[in-house]
Specification:
763 residues, alpha/beta, TIM Barrel, eight-stranded parallel beta sheet, six-stranded parallel beta sheet, 28 helices, 43% helix, globular, EC 2.1.1.14, Cbl-indep_Met_Synth_N, repeat, 5-methyltetrahydropteroyltriglutamate--homocysteine methyltransferase, zinc
Length: 763
Amino acid sequence: MLTQNLGYPRIGSQRQLKKACEQYWAGKIGQDELNRVARTIKEENWQTQLDTGIGLIPCNDFSFYDQTLDMSLLLGVIPQRYSPVLTQVPGNSEIDLYFAMARGYQKDGLDITAMEMTKWLDTNYHYIVPEFKAGQEFAISSEKVFGEYQAANKLLGQRAKPVLLGPVSYLLLGKEKEQGFERIDLIKKLVPIYVDIINRLKRLGAEWVQLDEPCLVLDLSAKEKDAFNYAYHCIANGVSGVKLLVATYFDALLDNTQLAVNLPVKALHIDLVRAPEQLDEVLALIPPNLRLSVGVVDGRNVWKNDYVRSLNLVNKAVEKLGADRVIIAPSCSLLHCPIDLELETGIDPEIRNWVAFARQKLDEIAELGQITRGNTALLDANRRAMESRRSSQKVHKQAVKSRVAAISETDTARKSAFPVRQELQHERFNFPLFPTTTIGSFPQTEDIRQLRARLKKGDLTIEQYEKAIEEATIDAIRWQEEIGIDVLVHGEFERNDMVEYFGEQLDGFLFTKNGWVQSYGSRCVKPPVIYGDVSRPQDMTVRWTKFAAAQTTREMKGMLTGPVTILQWSFVRDDQPREITANQIALAIRDEVMALEEAGISIIQIDEAAIREGLPLRKAKRPHYLDWAVRAFRITAGGVRDETQIHTHMCYSEFNDIIEHIAAMDADVITIETSRSQMELLQAFAHFEYPNEIGPGVYDIHSPRVPGTGEMVSLLARAAGLLPARNLWVNPDCGLKTRKWPETKAAIVNMVAAAKQIRELIG
């Protein structure tokens, strides 16, 4: 039975890629050194998979920033505004153009905004959204995929399998930037370029090519389904002698099953972790010439594979198709997992026995193949690990379960409706029109990061560490007072990450030292692992928020992360419904909210940056998710007084299809990302006549460029044309942790100036 992998983490076991990219952006290393680091990571990844015995090993799954952006570069989908990066700046090359598209470009006399970024389906990975125009042309414009295949082929031979984002998903995941056309209609222009790419790979020696089509698990229109048929029949007619594998993941094919199994390709991959129930229908409809790749090892979570469960699926497929037509694989790319459990030495041994990272998941794929050939010892060891987890007292806490069971509707609602609360809050705070604030974090400089590192090593006492954090907090407060921000934040210098910080203080969470996962570009996160029932043993933020509030006469926001975001940005236990875990976290955050209010904090932000991200891909499944996700948020804020103002924050999401549920969250103020989309996302709130207050972001914090005051005023004027001015706030798109202080200060000063100007214009 053949085995394969769909993709592997590309950041390097010690985040080498992150460090190299950031050094390149800072001008500290050149392109040769950047490429050397990338080459080393790729070769190590290939060798690891080869040593494990994986049959088909992906290449071109490596990316300096994002695989969708790689496709835009390969296909020549480069917005015209980036041309000066190459034509007007001597010495710039393709990689500089590439990074300009991802991050913007503000030097050499140029000021170019970055491309829009959004979540990759329902993950916390972000991709750069392709931009299409009516007359869009396509052409092979990059050699990366070909060079990478040649390098992989030298090491792997016929095992090397180039990976490309499929043509239909590439179009569907992009956006039209002009009126009067639909991007899916570009398929006839796009497909010939795919044919050329695949034929070039074939001439270089490729036997298999993987085409990722995640959009096959979405609700598709008739035109979109026709596009799949058209694209793959054209590719089949234009390509011969290479085996095409179409990969789907993250959900079931459902009504697209007939379409998918009849595409003229050699193999189809399906996700049997997220949607095991789809196997029966696929097997009932699969034609005799199609191989089936069964994704039975979870590519998005860290739990050890249950071999009994996986083998039931594998054996069912083998019984219908025969072993030679079944391929064992992970559910999706392992990009979404930490790299290697062997790098972790401090995990509780009992819990460690339940966990597998990307490197161990390769072993699981290989071991499943060995078990089908009679290795019962591997199966017995796996059974013991599964039983240990099911029966462990570290997982199950009856007091937590009882408290969740006792939640009532009164726990999920504020005392008064928003109009009543708004009047009380306006009277209490007396803010000007367009009040200014930031989302919470300020730049975490190397000095700040070193403080935590030195504390962990024992080079600093806790007293010395806290003294240094206090000084950084006071400096941030004084600067905010100086420039005139209305609602201050303390900067979160004591926090390593907006989820990890809370998880470290909650029972039921496990932490790693090297469990890094790419979020976007050079941004990596270290998600905690929720292994058991969750509770809050003590205050988490009160000490630092209360300290900050005592340093100023202005309002100081308390900053918390909401239950759904903690859920989404953690590796969640898979032995109970996610909504139960969400309610456990919600009760813990509710306790913290009440403690902050008791400490005198009257503005409390409960970030739900990931609530849109958790939305099921299929519309039929969304109402249930939205009901429990909104309810979890309302539990966190349901106990505070009307005069206490509850904020929330959401970033990099489309809101049109969930706007009613955002309103149902009933936050007094919501802040959202809108700068990259030029306030386009705000239209959903306008059409809905969103009743509560809102802060549309005017500063793109995922780019190093500093927007001018006039640019921000223009955005705010556009916002004021859509929503009542008395309901509008002024803020950046997101937290500022990843930025540098000079650009942050310049941008926030411009933001405050923009607020003053718009008050004069509107007021």
